[in-house]
Amino acid sequence: MNQKQLDLAVEKSIISREQATQLADLWFSKTPTTPRFDFTHVLYYLGGLIAIGAMTIFMNLSWETFGGWGILGITLLYAAGGIALANRFRRGDHIVPSGLCAAFVVALTPLAIYGLQQGMGWWPDETAYRDYHRYIKWHWLYMELGTLAAGAIIAYRYRYPFLLMPIALTLWYLSMDLAPLLADGAADFKLRTQVSLYFGLAMLLLSFWIDLRSSRSGDYAFWMYLFGIITFWCGLSLQESESELSKFVYFCINLMLVGVGAVLVRRVFVVFGALGVALYLGYVAHHVFSDMWLFPVALSAIGLGIIYLGLLWQKKENVITRRARRYMPSALRELLEQRRA
Questions:
Q1: Chain segment 293-310, per-residue pLDDT in tens
Q2: Burial, 46: exposed, middle or buried (Cβ in 10 Å; 0-12, 13-18, 19+)?
Q3: Residue 76: closest CA among 39, 114, 38
Q4: Which of 27, 49, 54, 327 is the most exposed place for a label (fewest CB within 10 A)?
Q5: In this structure, are residues 95 and 48 in contact, taking their beta carbons and an 8 Å threshold?
Q6: pLDDT band of 11, cuts 50, 70, 90
Q7: Residues 24, 25, 30, 35: is their CA dihedral positive or negative?
Q8: DSSP-assigned states of every residue in 57-113
């Protein structure tokens, strides 16, 4: 809801000007505790992401001088401070800063596990922590599994949607680091793409389950959908096949992603599905019909036909969706109605 929508409702005599003012006062008095795109929340997220980045992707080698136990001790102090701030912000009903501080604690977990492994002499090679975000290695798995465990505990304790961001990112990392373990350290490209494909599909199914369970309390599935579709789509797009049928199936899967995105009102599906469709059409244009002057003409006609189908769909959308929802499970029906609203 925004002021322009309220003004439109007044113009159409749906509500009075006095009611619009009261609704605006109620709405805007509550939004500071929820995510919104304004300068205050930009500062929240900028500060939070800088703090998280400082202890993750921007970590430098100077920290290695503290040794494993030193790294673990400093990390635990940071984590204690993060939990204290999260609790303080939560008591003040500052949900976004509290969620960012809790996510900061989750992001510290790989560093803490790295310090523990170094201190105990369990670290297997000469790689440093800063390589965790740069290279694919099987021994990152301990850090990732520990992060998932810590993330699950903290997410259960605080229940903020943003806490799913480090968890989803860690699952993405896990999908990449599983392949070297399965291949005994060998750089098997085919295996890596297959692991990414199936792991990403599992993440998407998990995201859908989370979406159904949490649709009334917040958008907990956003980050899982984002990293799930990245994992799945990259694994799918990197599959090697000379079969034209396989490439057409790839095209159909991406069309399906566009449709799923439209139904679930998840733009990330539409974006990656459209990229896949464009890749397939580019392949067809340059390799299959490269010498046929009618191909661009036919493709233009198909594009215009799709636009016309869109016009027809717009006219019949309410009737079709109303009938289709009769056969859907109640949880899915409620989710779609809420997304449409």
A1: 666 776 677 777 777 777
A2: exposed
A3: 114
A4: 327
A5: no
A6: confident
A7: positive
A8: TT--GGGGGGHHHHHHHHHHHHHHHHHHHHHHHHHTT-HHHHHHHHHHHHHHHHHHH
